Amino acid sequence: MNKARYIKIAGIISLSGNLILAVIKAIMAYMSSSLALMGDAIDTCTDVLTSILTLVISFIITRPEDKEHPWGHSRSETVATMILSFVIVYAGSQVCINSVKRLVSGGITQEISYLALIAAGISIAGKILLCISQFHYAKRSGSDILKANALNMKSDIVLSAGVLLGLLLSFIFKRPKLDPIVAVIVGLWVVKNGVILFWEVTQELIDGNTDKSLYKKLFDATLSVPGALNPHKARIRKMASFYDIDLDFEVDPDMTVKNAHELTEKVEQAIRSAIPEVYDVQIHVEPLGGCSNHNENYGLSPEIL
To answer: Which residues contact 86 (CB under 8 A, 6 or more apart)?
Structure first.
């Protein structure tokens, strides 16, 4: 069973599990009139959308390169993720707005029912099972996407636990106002996740990269090849789950073109071993001591990491 198969199975499990939880929580939130539980249900609905997008995009990004898309179709995942971030922010803000309106109106009289407590408990149990499954398939496939989804499930467990705590306090102390207060907190949590997601994909779309460990791996891999000297003008940009790399390094001025070409192939192989998610590596070779920073675009070197 290959990596794609594991990712597909994990995606189907995530979609099915989150869909069932979203329906259960939405129905019980409506029946119990719990805004906090409804906010949790909306958060789970965003997980359903994420699972659907993951499955759909998985077919698009595997399409081969063509004349119009020489770098492939991997950025379609990034565009879809940005759209999803807006949906998440909108959903979370609506939870906050509705909860504040209910607090201001002073029309909170209904006490929290057992249904809301049961739904919150089901949510925690379901999210734990989903989290375990995603970590399991992430480990077997080595997929960063599944690992990220598993970590998101882990955050959802904390969120559902917070909802359950708020509902319990409302139920025990007979303070129904605690429910919309918890709902505001849940809504802000959802908005925060949407903003973080938006920031991450924005950095990718503008070719930003804040992970300095990647550059260290790049330079270490280059210098591990005998004859590859003074790596510089390195640039790494993210393309969905892959990285596109530009790199300059110096060689012996008396080296033949054939030997220099063979050396670059060894460097590229070393880089791909150190950073398996590499999509492409563009290497420019310069004679030792001939490096000039004049009229060159910005790039990183080991000295300024």
So the answer is: 194, 198
Position 79 pLDDT exceeds 70: yes
Question: What is the pLDDT, as a whole number, of residue 295?
Answer: 46
What is this structure's pTM? 0.64
pLDDT in tens, 206-217: 777 767 788 889
The dihedral of CA 11, 17, 22, 27: what is its sign?
Answer: positive
Strand 242-251 vs strand 278-287: parallel, antiparallel, or unpaired?
Answer: parallel
In sequence order, the β-bridge partners of residue 135 are none
Q: Tell me, what amino acid is at 205?
A: L
How would you write 212-266 as a 3-class SS string? HHHHHHHHHHHHCCCCCEEEEEEEEEEECCEEEEEEEEEECCCCCHHHHHHHHHH
Task: Check whether 58 has a pLDDT greater than 70.
Answer: no
Q: Please state, in angstroms and rounded to a whole number, the distance separating the CA atoms of residues 166 and 119.
A: 13
Name the residue with tokens 């407590």: 117
Q: List the 242-251 sheet strands across, edge first.
A: 229-239, 242-251, 278-287
